[in-house]
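Here is one chain, start to finish.
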Amino acid sequence: MDIDTNAEEENSRRVQVRFITKLKPPLKVAPTSIAIPSNLTRLGLSSLVNNLIQATTPDWNPQPFDFLIDGELVRMSLDNFLLAKAISAEKILEIEYIKAYPTFVLSSLAGYALGSLKFRRRW
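Its structure:
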C-alpha cells in the first residue's frame, strides 16, 4: 500500500464486522468480529477476506469476492453504503461474502433469463 492509502485508512472511522459465507472450506473464515476501516470498498474487503483465508490456508490463491449486507450487494464504500441504507455502524455488521463473477457474465445471464420469458396479453 502506498502512503496516501495508509493515511486515508488512519483518518477513516472503524466498524466492527463479522464475515460470513455459505461457501465451503477453505473459503470460510473464523466467525469472529474484527474492526476494519469504514472506507473500504469491494476491492479492500476482498483483499481482507483473502488475507484471512490465507492465514489458515498458506497455499491459498487469492480470488475476488462480492459482499452483501442484509442481502444487498455492496457496490460502494462501507461508509457510503451504511449511510445510504441508514444502517447503524454501532452494531457488529454481518457481511456475507460470495464468489465474484465478472459483470459481463451476470449481464449475459440476465439477458438470457429475460429472453426466455414469455409474455401473454390479457384482455
